[in-house]
Amino acid sequence: MPSAWVPKGGEKRAAKGAGRVRGSQEAPANGAKGGKKTLDEAAMTPFLREITLVSSGGAFLDGYVLSLIGVALTQITAQMSLTTHWTAAIGASVLLGILVGSIVGGYLTDIIGRKKMFVLDIIAIALFSALSMTDATPMQLVIYRFFIGVFVGADYPIATSLITEFTPKHHRAISMGMVSAAWYLGATVAALVGYCLCDVDNGWKLMLGSAIIPCVFLLIGRCKVPESPLWLKSKGREEEALKVVLRVYGADVTLEGEEEAPKTKAGFGEVFSKGYAARIVFLGILTLCQVVPMYAIYTFGPQIMTAFGLGVGKSAILGESVLSLFFLVGSLPAMFWLNSMGRRPLLIRSLFLMAVGLVVLGLFPTAPLPVIICAFGLYAFFSGGPGILQWLYPNELFPTEVRATAVGLAIGISRVGTIVATYGTPIFMAAFGIGPTMLVAAGLVILGLVLSIFMAPETAGKSLGETSSL
To answer: Which UniProt keywords apply (predicted)?
Structure first.
């Protein structure tokens, strides 16, 4: 396979790449002229940080709406006398929506631009969250949750493409780490909101409708974000691209030396051509192995906490919020380790430790409480690095003209597994118990570990032109 894809020299090369990251004053490597910097060499300004913040809002909403349904279902199931299959359908419907939205949204984002989609999807999420507050039937809830998922899924390739294309290379891992941290923050806030509303009559309506509040703030912030200059350049709109560069970076930054205008049009065919197909398969399976256990834990968090003896009712919800904090805290150092340690070694080590935590939970589900907490903590804390890389890798490994499409496809592949797992988790737990359920989750993480050992690339310290080349 091409050298830009399969690392040679393993972790030693990763260490060299990390060394290049720390040297922020290196000579221009992308062919900039006249002493000007390229986008990859530009300084990280307050406006660029604001772009990262409002772009991360979609991930916050994903973590929020996905996790809150687990708490809301404890009320909905009792109030509507739902069967296990209806409970699973409501939980899995948002994931089916994410599958559709990530693929279609990624394709449209590469065709019509990042900016338009960036605003429209937030408006749609607020609309369907408002509809969820009505006296909905189980089928209506499935439909509303599906469309929330569609627009949450569409936001993945939109927002992460914008962050990647605006952020200088030395800050890319940290900026994408903010996306992952925002997901866990959303999940943590959801657990706390659920804890406060779980004893309120019809509290589930307030839970599902509360997503409108962050949508309003995000809509205000996103209206100020310009179109990606790299996307504009890829469409031959260089004059508009230069105006955006001048506005965002200043007069000492140039588009020269960045990715050249594509020789082919954006589309699914281009993504699967040449060496890109192998990258899509790797990223799709890796993301599937990483998110399936996590989504199952978040969607049915209170039930899983109860199965491990970590409380019933509000106590179980509180236990889920503590677990969510482990996920959040683990993503913070991982932002910096991705540069200092390198993408590949951090991924492999993290997946190994995550698997250890899940194996302990699977083999010893009745272990003393401190053991259960430590095993959950081990799994959740070291999910930080892989959690960031599920956003960072696909954005680094594909060129501008197909970046959003590729991100959407990778996420779409992974969501096939999450739909099956989320629908099947309560059914599997009822039939076989919590121990075997955790062992299945461990098996998936181990599969991701083996795949990463053979296929994970090292992209630290490289420009987008280098990481996306074949």
So the answer is: Membrane, Transmembrane, Transmembrane helix, Transport
